[in-house]
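Hi again,

Forgot to attach this to my earlier email, sorry! This is the prediction with serine bound. I've pasted everything inline since the attachment limit keeps bouncing my files.
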Amino acid sequence: MKNQLTANQLRQKYIDFFVSKDHVQISGASLIPENDPTVLFTTAGMHPLVPYILGSDHPSGKRLTNYQKCIRTGDIEAVGDPHHLTFFEMLGNWSLGDYFKKEAIAFSYEFLTKVLEIDPSQLSVTVFEGDDLVPRDEIASSAWMSHGIPQERIYFLPREDNWWGPAGETGPCGPDSEMFIDTGRKACGDDCRPGCSCGKYFEIWNDVFMGYKKNADGTYSEMERKCVDTGMGIERTIAILQGKKSVYETEIFTPVIAGIEKLSGKTYGNDEETDISIRILADHVRTSVFILGDPKGMAPSNVGQGYILRRLIRRAVRHGHKLGIEGSFLGELATIVLGLYAQPYPELEENKEFIFKELAAEETKFSETLQKGEREFEKMLPNLLKGTSRQLSGRTAFKLYDTYGFPVELTRELANEHGFSVDEEGFKAAFEKHQEISRSGAEHQFKGGLADHSDKTTALHTATHMLHKALRTVLGEHVGQKGSNITVDRLRFDFTHPSPMSKEEIQQVEDMVNEQIARNLPITVESMTLEQAKEAGAIAFFESKYGEQVKVYSIGDYSKEVCGGPHVENTSSMGHFKILKEQSSSAGIRRIKAILE
Ligand code: SER
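Structure tokens for the complex follow:
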């Protein structure tokens, strides 16, 4: 490539180019999505723009551009190879009901060939081949041809390749056109084409023609106002422009890797196992810094985003130890990451104290756990190796988890390193049995302690669901349950919301709950997996329970929520709902106390 841009240069050139084409630069959003309870992190530049793509007016107009921090956690375990990242930056430009395919492709072609100076003969593109819902994309294809891309480098591919979105479970989506650089390597076979994993073709940009909306029931509706959404990953693009085989060889990773080399005394690029650990450490530290340093940043915990953060930090620490690094080291590596991103992401500097404090706390806590767990594993190893089975029993994996707090993901990794697999089914069974025991303990307590008044507390529990729903309707979908505590006299509900509620909002919420109670709604319950529950539109906040069967309670057509129960049979028995108090609980968290009278 002629134009060996750095990340900082590419970011600037992209924004400048689209500003010169009458786009307005908007700032990137938080990594924690505002209005989408179906995913934990912002996964694409278009994600924060969903409401505008769906039709509301954007205050900055119809042509927008920006760079956006993104996290995709689908494949944390895949990080370690030369390509996967959990955090990346996406460049994007949008048309909100303004230009469509022809102009979007003209912009893309001009930017790639004039600004990035990519030789047009190296470009291949893909377009949607069509199906029952949407016709073959002849418009996109002829747009590419009009710029001189020959037919044989335009590939018509099916939905699994050339359809994008929605970003969460529902929302805007449409056919797309992806742009690839041909690295010039030999094709791996006759059917080698863009999208093939052999490495000949490298995807750098995606133009999505947002014309459809996926609904909660799985159907698609056509959008009246068509939009364009494009996304270019900075890390991948600079790697290809710089002629590097891996994103980890570019200037956004080499200083971090040098830091790891210095701390560990190991060298990157000599030995595959070492390289894997170095890449995991480099990626996970970077992502952790961005989660902690986000304006809505959060500390490691056992739920939601905090749980992902905890997993990332713990995996980083473990691989640091594997590389032979002693003492604490995350802070030193975080300093390097901060230095690299100070200019485009000033929030990191602003939240520096929080970043270092939380990293150090989790590192210390986990190092202790780890030492205990690894020691136990090593102790078991001779016995395990004597046996003929190369599978670690579910009971053993569970013991490591339960007694030593050793996460099963790490047991799996440790086991794999010694040639063992883990009996996953067995682990799940042991885990569920344990949960049943603790759950029946809790139920027992419920019955025993509150036997006389169980109708009252049950009704307050149903009221809690209705309150949750009403808060989300009145204040917005960012409202999420942070805690619930019910006594015979009142309910107490903690939820995320940045500011005190106004008198009117409190009244509105109270009225809404009472209106629904008056509808005499029946309460029904179904069992399903967490994934199915989410597909059915149920509110589910505790993300760590994937794969588990959960109960979903529906209050008529009003609310649907994953919950253990119990609930009343019909809202007619509940009485009148009244909010007594709305107050602060902690930073960003409000608390409501309410009664049924
Ligand atoms: N949303 C599309 C993507 O993530 C284009 O921005 O690829």
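Confidence is low (pLDDT under 50) at residues 437-452, 542-546. Residues 362 and 414 are 20 Å apart (CA to CA).

That should be everything now.

G.
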